[in-house]
Design goal:
763 residues; alpha+beta; eight-stranded mixed sheet; four-stranded antiparallel sheet; 17 helices; 36 strands; signal; 6-blade_b-propeller_TolB-like
Length: 763
């Protein structure tokens, strides 16, 4: 198999069913109060127009309260082509019934609006004498929405669900990461051995037992891949993120560290699928701040220097012959894509960019005459483009709402297969008709949606596939082996089969307006069998901050929901995927407008009646840990409990202790976060450690001693400063962990302690 991934396989997500904003019990309060459920109209007795009905229903029956694009997507589920074409006309009873039935997800074999109205009457959505052509007023609609709420929650007795143990959520989930051998006759996967993730190999269409080919007892295998008939895998030491590449023989009898260099981290450049025994890697062996390119012989471990980094190269790309022909140089602010015809020539500028622009090459075409890339040069959104050797650009795919997040190129066919983007969930745009037909056939065969299905791996002839199915209530992926020549589908594994999806919580897409008018997207997970009213809420800001939350299974979110908490995840400004302008809106806004976006999300949940304002908690890791500390520092009355997991307390010391291989990104950090000298007052103002006198919220801190990103000192400082004031802070430090706890026993201990802490303060 020969294919180039820009983005790892993403966890797919399932569209939630009938999210419902909290409605007041009183009809007139529902119709007229200012929670955005049904707006006032000039005359409550006037006939409801179709457009007004759609607007009111969107606000009342979904959590999309700000994004016009996402509201339009919801309408597409409610209204089919040819229906409700005249938006100015009064809407009739049968059409209202049709929308309500679809919004509830209880549509069966109804054909006409009369059928939908009869269904609505049977379910108690409308009164028994309601007519197909009857129009409604705002007051009438308010009553209908109250009825809708009763139907939506008729099986909800507000008692929650049976408590699931922390261990069941946090222990190793089983077999995952399935990959086919190049000849398609064997399959590898990761599974637990001695409480650590290790790699196993199994012969396909054979009853023989799988063979374990790695024997790691100290640390999980971080990843693995096939090279010829060998398994290569990567692992660090105690969370230090100095990843080495190891080889394992086919029978698992011999393991070898192929890059046995202390304090060196290795990254794969190319698997060189058509070159026997050799791969291309990057290492910061000569200079800890930059990565050179080496050819590595996986049999002998011999490395050959291929490309020297002058100090400013941040990425490299090999052509289809394995020659390094593209390099991207950057000063941390502006970057230039460099090109050369042969490895004997010097690199020359190919594409120049301005601050904020990015061009990320993916792959050369088969003839090495074209280059595929993701680019936002001279535009707001990242698009998939094709470049000739004179840098002339052809746009292959763009999306007006969001960035293109990744694309897959297949060199054996010399085709781009598809690109993907994420709005509320993952979506695909296909360029190869046969691959699209196969994808759609698998959707039908597995009875899943587009966003639940992933092609994990395939044999280059495209006859054997590893297929994954995932959603918001299934841990990771259900794996299948598919043979397209026989149309046979074989189930390989269920992750965490002990977790029943029916006992888990739905993740709802949301949107709201920030105080300065930005549209903020996110996700709201509501506890199963609990009414979404006055719930304890945990806001869970993501790390980065230049990443984003996605719709999919999240074990810690599901754990919190299982314990009765609503969980709010916010893609605040600076989150990736929403375009350059949105990303840059977070520059030098740590603790300021970024924090306001998080606060505004909490207030939105309170205003909707979902969250109890006296029982709000905040929990986050990495930047999310910083946002946790900033939340209890700068909005101390908002939160009743806080958990900081490997979070930043002092931006000055964060910038002083970044890993050496992040040095080329230093200027970018100064631009996005702040300069320690030029922005000294700003960084002092937003670093929580300097404002501990404002903190009064109970705090739990967790930290890995070997963390190379957020140094242990970040947690030590805030804990010591608070304890000096006589405030007791719960502090969990793990000596064998880095940026987050990866070892199973440490994960279980941390989440048990976190749940106990939150329950003590929020229940």
């Amino acid at each position: 198999m020969s294919k180039k991934f820009l983005l790892s396989a993403l966890t797919a997500i399932l569209f939630a069913s009938y999210p419902f904003s909290a409605l007041a019990n009183d009809t007139h309060r529902t119709a007229n109060e200012s929670k955005g459920i049904v707006s006032e109209v000039a005359n409550n007795k006037s006939k409801m127009s179709t457009q007004d009905f759609i607007d009111y229903a969107l606000t009342a029956l979904s959590y999309e309260h700000a994004s016009e694009e996402m509201r339009a997507q919801v309408v597409k589920q409610w209204v089919q082509k040819g229906e409700l074409e005249n938006l100015k006309e009064p809407i009739a009873g049968g059409e209202i019934a049709r929308v309500l039935i679809r919004a509830l997800g209880i549509e069966k074999d109804e054909k006409s609006v009369t059928d939908y109205l009869e269904s609505a009457k049977r379910h108690g959505l409308v009164k028994a004498n309601f007519q197909v052509n009857e129009t409604v007023t705002t007051d009438d609609l308010a009553t209908i929405f109250v009825n809708y709420k009763k139907v939506a929650f008729k099986d909800n007795d507000d008692t929650g669900v049976k408590e699931i143990s922390v261990e069941d959520f946090m222990k190793n989930p089983g077999d995952f990461g399935y990959q086919l051998s190049p000849d398609g006759n064997y399959i590898s996967y990761t599974s637990a051995w001695e409480s650590r993730s290790n790699v196993f190999v199994k012969k396909m269409n054979d009853d023989s037992e799988p063979v374990r080919v790695t024997s790691s007892k100290d640390r999980d295998i971080a990843g693995s891949f096939w090279k010829d008939n060998q398994i290569l895998y990567v692992k660090d030491n105690g969370g230090d993120e100095n990843f080495h590449i190891y080889s394992s023989s086919f029978n698992g009898q011999e393991e070898k560290d192929l890059t046995p260099y202390p304090k060196v981290t290795v990254q794969l450049v190319s698997g060189l699928q058509d070159v026997k025994d050799e791969i291309l890697i990057m290492m910061n062996k000569e200079n800890p701040t930059v990565f050179d390119v080496y050819k590595l012989n996986i049999k002998t471990g011999v490395t050959t220097h291929v490309a020297k980094n002058p100090g400013n190269i941040v990425s490299w790309l090999a052509d289809q012959d394995g020659k390094i022909r593209i390099a991207v140089e950057s000063d941390g602010i502006e970057s230039t894509v460099l090109y050369r015809d042969t490895e004997e020539e010097d690199f020359k500028p190919f594409i120049n960019t301005k601050a904020g622009d990015s061009v990320s090459p993916i792959a050369f075409s088969k003839d090495n005459q074209s280059i595929y890339a993701l680019s936002n040069k001279d535009r707001d959104k990242v698009e998939l483009v094709k470049l000739d050797l004179k840098a002339n650009e052809e746009v292959i795919y763009s999306n007006p709402q969001v960035d293109v997040m990744g694309a897959v190129y297949d060199s054996s066919q010399d085709k781009m297969l598809y690109s993907l983007y994420i709005t509320d969930k993952v979506h695909y745009s296909f360029f190869d008709k046969e691959f699209e037909q196969l994808f759609n056939h698998l959707i039908e065969k597995l009875n899943v949606s587009e966003s639940e299905l992933m092609i994990q791996d395939y044999k280059k002839e495209m006859t054997k596939f590893v297929v994954g199915v995932s959603n918001d209530k299934m841990y990771g992926t259900y794996y299948y082996y598919y043979d397209s020549t026989t149309d046979e589908l074989e189930k390989l594994a269920d992750l965490s089969s002990w977790l029943e999806p029916d006992n888990l919580a739905d993740m709802h897409p949301i949107s709201y307006k920030s105080r300065d008018g930005l549209t903020i997207h996110g996700y709201l997970t509501l506890p199963k069998n609990k009414k979404p009213e006055n719930l304890p809420l945990i806001v869970n800001p993501h790390g980065g901050p230049w990443s984003r939350d996605m719709w999919g299974f999240n074990p810690e979110v599901q754990l919190l929901a299982n314990r009765g908490y609503a969980v709010l995840q916010v893609n605040f400004r600076s989150s990736a995927g929403y375009g350059k302008e949105f990303l840059d809106a977070g520059n030098k806004q740590w603790g300021l407008k970024i924090q306001d976006d998080i606060t505004d999300g909490v207030q939105w949940a309170i205003d909707q009646g979902i969250a109890d304002s006296e029982r709000i908690g905040i929990y986050g890791a990495s930047f999310g840990g910083y946002a946790t500390l900033a939340g209890i520092t700068f909005t101390p009355d908002l939160y009743a409990a806080a958990v900081d997991y490997v979070g930043v307390s002092n931006i000055f010391t964060l910038l002083e202790t970044i890993p050496p291989y992040w040095e080329t990104m230093r200027n970018d950090l100064y631009k996005k976060v702040g300069h320690p000298i030029e922005d000294k007052e700003l960084l002092e103002a937003v670093s929580p450690v300097f404002h501990v006198d404002k903190i009064k919220t109970p705090l739990f801190v967790a930290q890995g001693a070997n963390d190379p990103r957020v140094n242990k000192a970040e947690s030590d400082q805030i804990v010591e400063a608070l304890r000096a004031r006589g405030i007791d802070v719960e502090y969990m430090l793990k000596e064998n962990e880095g940026h987050g706890f990866h070892n199973e026993e440490n994960r279980i201990e941390f989440y048990n302690a976190m749940i106990k802490f939150l329950d003590n303060h929020l229940k």
